Amino acid sequence: MKLVWKLSLSVAVLALGAFPALAQPVISAKSGVVSYVIGKVMVGDQVVKPSETKLTEVKENAVLRTEEGRAEVLLTLGAILRTGDNASFKMLTNRLIDTRVELLTGTHIVEVAEVQKDNNLTLVVKDATVVITKRGLYRFDVDQSRIKVFEGVLGVTVNGQSTLVGAGKMVDSTTASVEKFDKEATDAMDHWAQRRAELVAMANASSAKQVHDYGCTPNNFASTNRTSGPCSNSCNTWRYNPWYGLVTYIPCGANIYSPYGYRYWSPDNVMRAYYVPPSPSYNGGGFGGNPGSYSGMSQTSSGYSGAMATSTGSVSSSTAAVSSGTSTSSSAGTASSGQGASGGGRGK
């Protein structure tokens, strides 16, 4: 009941044109922003607490660790690190042009929807140095010295020996040995990470439409990335979605999909998701149709039209299918604010 009231209030404020007055978390232009936590998560000796105005940042040389909890951390643009229970990592450098993270203990999953040209992402895992340059889904079991590639390709260097590890392969982070693994053999951590990925992708459509509705230059959003105003950082950016209460990603390019198969719309093409086919009308000589129009589309309390298309086209993945228990309505209903403790939930 509290969540319904909160969403209704947000929509009411938007209707009054007072959206700029809403308290929203500040999203840093660096890697290391903690966008979501559940359970006990600490950065240094400070417990990460939910906030609707400021998101915790893992600064350089700081360590994030979980106990009975999990965390979602924004890395380079389009890349998200999800850390499991009883795990930890150290942020070595947090600049987008040079992001380096040392995974210390536990299990971590990195989801990469796209890699920007000038963004560099490197992970250190025991004796291995891992460079991520491709869209993909990667799992790091630090305590077992195991790195799995579900989708994509990793460049891995162990004690001076470099190798490329493709999908369906895993590499030992101490010996550099490579072998196959069963991508269907997943656990609660994998399921939780996928549900979080689904929520983040769902929130993209309404956020991209919001940027579109600001009236930024059509077909040229990338060049309108200004430092202030409604068109600032309009795409290729992380953006807070007030309807879902979480941070999502907005690309500049078209046909961007997460490795799970979920689509990310840009402000340029998002209205395809809101298009309503013209309804037939009787004109005396037969049935005709009225031209379709984007301008008549309105947002629901969830931030998107009920007619929104969610097809992933030709993208396929052995891990892309969402279980029947995870629906659009249930996912939106469990979304939390900022770092709240209910968005996505745990895997079962």
Describe the protein.
It is a single chain. The chain is α+β, with helices and mostly antiparallel strands. The chain is built from four helices and 21 strands. The strands form four sheets. It has a 15-stranded mixed β-sheet that branches. It has a two-stranded antiparallel sheet with strand order 16-17. It starts with a helix and ends in a 15-residue tail after the last helix.
Biggest sheet features: 15 strands, mixed
* CATH A-level architecture of the largest domain: Sandwich
Radius of gyration: 21 Å
- In round numbers, the mean pLDDT is 77
| Bulk shape | globular
- What's the SSE pattern? HEEEEEEEEEEEEEEEHEEEEHEEH
Tell me the quaternary state: single chain
- Total count of helical runs of at least 4 residues: 4
Instruction: Tell me what portion of residues adopts beta-strand conformation.
Output: 25-35%
